[in-house]
Amino acid sequence: MTNPARAWLAEFRLMNLDLRRSLDGRPLYSYQVTQSEYQQLKMILQKKPNMSGNSIYLTDWAACFCLYVAENFRREYEANWSWDPIWKNLGYELPVQDYQRFVELGLKKWNRPMRYFAKGRNFLGSLFAEGGLPWLLVQTGHGFGVLVRKGLAEYYNTKAVGQPLTLLMSDYASRLPQSFRNLETYQLLAGIIEQLIYLVENYPIQDQEDPAAYLDQKKSTWRSEFPIPLDEQNARNLINEWLKSANEQHRLQTQKSKDIQLLSCSHLLNTFDDLDVNNWNIQTSVYLPKKIELSIDCAHLTSTRFELVFYEGERIIKKAGVAYAEIDQQNNKVVVSILSQKFDLTRDAVNEPVKLCFFQSGINRHSVLIDDSALMLGQLPVIFECKNDEWLFLRQASCKTQGNMVCVNIPADSKIIFGDYSVLGKLADGSQWIKFTSDATLVIDSDRYRIRLQQNINEANFRIVGQVCLYNTVPPLVYYGLPQVRIDDQGDIPSHWSVEMNGKPIILPIRQRNDGFAGLVDYRILGEEKENLGRQRFGVLPVGFSITSYTSSGRVPAKLIIKQAQALPISIVQNDIVSSKIETTEGVEINITPKYDSRPTIVTLLIGSPNAPVRIILPYPHEGAELINEHQIRVNSTELSLDELLGLSLNINTANQIQQKAILQISLIRSTGSTIKRSFVTDSYQSAISISLFNYQEEIIQLLSAGEDQDAYVQICIIQSGKLLKQLNIRRYQSVLKKVSSQRFRLEYAALKEQQEQENIQLRALLLSNPKQQIDIPTIYSHGAATGEFEVSADLERDGPWLIFSTHDSTTRIRPFLYISANEYPIEPEALLNVKSLHRAAELFHPIYRPNLIKQQITAMATNLSNSGWQYLFDLKTDYQHLALSTFEVWRELVRQPLSLALGLFKLEFDYFFCERIQQELAVLWDTISIQVWVTAYAQFKSWLVEQGLPDVLIAQVLANREQTLHGVVSGFEFIKPYLQAPIPEKLQPAPLQALPFWYQNMRHRNAQEKYWPNDLGEPIKNWILQQDLPHAIKNLSLTEETDAVTYLPIFMAFVSTERATLRDLNFPSQHLKFQISLTADFDRVAWYSPVHALMVCYLLAESQHVTC
Predict the structure, then answer these.
(1) Among candidates 379, 367, 374, which has minimal Cα distance to 352?
(2) In b/e form, how buried is each residue of 971-999, taking b as 16+ CB within 10 angstroms?
(3) How far apart are CA 837 and CA 843, in angstroms?
(4) Could you read off the pLDDT of 629-682 as tens digits, one per residue?
(5) Cβ 238 vs Cβ 138: under 8 Å
(6) Which pairing describes strands 770-777 and 723-731: parallel, antiparallel, or unpaired?
(7) Largest CA distance in the chain
(8) CA terminus-to-terminus distance, the chain
């Protein structure tokens, strides 16, 4: 029997021995089939196969068939996901069982894996995946090329902040056809970008007219790394365009004067359509250094753990997770390590400055102002330039740019002196969006602004440097004393520039001759031709200025004592307060009483010049505890949800003018199980203290995660001097959904809600068998108003089950509601079901009748990183970020299986914040995952990346990114990283055990002023340590009972991390135990827990292999 397929394969491999020497399991697109070879394949396959042929014949034919289908996808796919174009080209159609057999045989011949989707083996998808990217769609406007350009433009920023390229690709996934919004496509695109950057960094292509031809001479195999057919001229043109773009990004990076590791920000004008200024927003990206030193009195700190929060003015805009500090008590230094260096903020009040606040126990310990974060739309010319198809903020002053056009928001009273421009739109405040295509000059008030295009000069940026005030003020930016003006990387401003303060020239540097100045300041920096180079408005208070509040006592009224305010104009501008003012040796004393029966919630002071004062907003001093929202309105409700904590402040006041502390006792209340409690002690205060309740949200979530009861709640009791001041109940959700009839749902609230909030509730339902499929749940209206009821739509009766949830934009969050159609099939035992995917398992899961379906699929996923279940989890992670992870049984089951969870961190590219969510919402202790599990997961993931045929440079970058996340998850990861990469005990280099007593003494010294050491675990952990075969120095490491838990916890957890112990060994209630371990580890995580845990892990691993430490 002749075998033309075998002959063709032999010749095919001989044509390029370097590329095709062995069928080594690379993706089929890597063999770079030429157009003529593709046509030859087609001719061979147009003759139907002889199904009775021998195994060699059938295997060779199958190999050619698979290669042809993959290449057909790469060259001819036009968005028709079907076998039909294949059969049309070949002139016949094979029966299903025949082509499935050929796919199996062919993939095995090429040493390639079968892909799976929700319903089983994906034969067509497996071959399409081998083809790489569909060239006809790549070269048109389907978004592939756009994503490559975006990736090139953001590559160095993304790398600097530790973000995976695949995540960047998923951010722009809406530009892709629906069937390509998956992990494999993102990896292919990331591979293209990594390979392009690698080539321009390693080959001098900058002077090459045809970079592709140059690479053909210098690196003959370079084409195999690209999943597009580079033998076509159009493809070579495109790859040359990409190479030149990558080279430009590389050039800019090497010239870049602005170090991304500095504290800085950038702004993106999102117009959603080509400069559609009727539909726009501003996104601000904040870049943080890896370490930030805080100006804090170490004596006030209660642990090394800080909650980071971004504020826009006085409004919380985003949580930035948790960071840990190294504390130097002797030098009073606090250095916080930042694990994620980039944060994207969607702005609401863009004219307000952004600041990063460091909270501890609800107290703002320190604030860092983000320079240039306030864009003064409608007041100054705010200028954006177009770079890489995006409008990026340039300056809000005179400027130069290399570009040939800019988009500018100019105030209503602006005058355009000259320049070619077009009006794009007008805003409600009268300001306009203007596009300039030539140099231009504007006049706003008396200020003159020049915009010069196509200039090569990079202008320096000026900065205002000073001590920022932490009071709630208007303007939001206020300094103590007059701040200085500095130029980035240069220091003082150039001599040909000048600075004006409130219209009058001043000499720099500013001398603090008048520390008593208070009021508004308008700084203007003028260039050589008196053009405005920058303008900033802020407030100034005297150095040493402070306010202390005292509540009323008997007939003595409440008062404010203001230091460093003598001779300053001070007034209270509220008609509901009666006040009187006297000056004393301590400062200015203002007595205040309510004018009416209703007590005010705030006191508003005007400080400084009557024409331009600084406004300070303070809580009204009143004995007791009360809640105030971000609008300074008193909140009387004691039933709150987690979301309602945002912007809430708890103000605690006392009439006793003595130093005291309050206690916040937080307790988990649930239908079954014991109560879990945790107490927080406030800072010492003499009269009043204000605490952000929102910054206790993580502790509340951790308590709620201690059980699986979705209706459990947390009770907060505020106690002062043994007296209960206030009690609050915090629930996961504000309302629950009830089905009241076959046609209607109704919301029931835990507490009374305002009607306007009901109108903003939007409900959707996701199909549990396919998270990508959602439907709207229609609101029922009466006379144009929402009734709080919703329709049971006909869509809910099809397929199912459905999970109904409130959208991210809803003002009220509902408890997710599982809807099962009345047409649901009768429940069958799970043993009778042939479930092959997580999609199907999620559809059929039942906690009583089918409890193991999801467990079985999660277990199967741990052996196959191409399992469709990973895409299911990726879709949940991407599309349902606002829902608690505990909502989904699939997340609950994932964390029950350590290897699957570890693989999830790699495969799904968990960042540090998602790992934090898992820890808080699902009660996961990452150190309970053994080092051997991490070793297994690392090796399995690396092998899978190689199997996918990804470029070596991308594999190295992906692994480095995953290691960066592990650094924040695995305690002391930097010490065990070599062992993870290659589990050879000799690679472990632990510090000697003799260092522990010295470390212990340092730990005691660092926390010498700490009166509250977490020690609930002290007795069980020390008893366990004493029973182990450990050196005497370790068993007697803790010299006092109060330090037992903190001292011995990392040693015990090292035994857990090396599979020599389990949490059950402590005989401590399991749910309470995890909570206490987190609390104790956070007490001194950076300087004690992590290094001691790493030392002991290395010691135990080396000991098990008889390696001398």
Answers:
(1) 374
(2) bbbebbeebbeebeeebbebbebeebeeb
(3) 10
(4) 888 888 988 999 888 888 898 988 887 767 888 899 999 988 777 778 888 888
(5) yes
(6) unpaired
(7) 113
(8) 67
User: Which pLDDT score, from 0 to 100, does residue 395 have?
Assistant: 93
pLDDT digits (tens, 9 = 90+) for 1000-1039: 998 988 887 777 888 999 999 999 999 999 999 899 999 9
Grouping H, G, I as helix, E, B as strand and the rest as coil, residue 1014 is: coil
Distances in Å between the Cα of 18 and the Cα atoms of 22, 23, 26, 219, 950 are 9, 12, 13, 12, 18
Q: What are the angstrom distances between the C-alpha of 149 and each of 133, 163, 241, 248, 628?
A: 16, 17, 10, 12, 47
Rounded Cα gap, residues 633 and 167, in angstroms: 40
If you count them, how many residues does the chain have?
A: 1109
Instruction: Report how far apart, in Å, the C-alpha atoms of 567 and of each of 84, 288, 310, 581 are.
Output: 88, 41, 36, 12
Parallel/antiparallel/unpaired status of strands 498-501 and 519-526: antiparallel
**DSSP assignment of 709-735:** -TT-EEEEEEEETTEEEEEEEEES-SE
- What number is the average pLDDT over the span 161-181? 82
Rg of the Cα trace of the chain? Answer: 33
Residue 583 to residue 593: CA distance in whole angstroms: 18
**In 542-595, where do the E strands start and end?**
546-550, 558-563, 570-572, 577-584, 587-594
Closest CA to 135 of 275, 256, 231: 231
Show the CA angle centred on residue 803, arms to residues 799 and 805, nearest 5°. 140
> In whole angstroms, what is the distance from residue 954 CA to residue 189 CA?
10
- Alpha-carbon separation of residue 1053 from 1057, 1067, 1076 (angstroms): 6, 15, 13
CA distance 929 to 1062: 10
Contacts of 355 (CB under 8 A, 6+ apart): 310, 311, 367, 368, 369, 370, 373, 468
List, for residues 927-957, the tens digit of each pLDDT value: 999 999 999 999 999 999 988 878 888 888 8
DSSP class per residue in 127-153: HHHHT-S-HHHHTTTTSHHHHHHHHHH
> What single-letter DSSP state applies at residue 491?
B
DSSP 8-class letter at 17:
H
Determine the 3-state secondary structure of 311 from DSSP: strand
Q: What is the distance between the alpha carbons of residues 846 and 841, in angstroms, rounded to a whole number?
A: 9
Q: Which residues pair with 589 in a beta bridge?
A: 561, 582
Which strands form 415-418's sheet, in the order they lie side by side?
A: 399-400, 447-452, 440-444, 415-418
CB 114 within 8 A of CB 107: yes
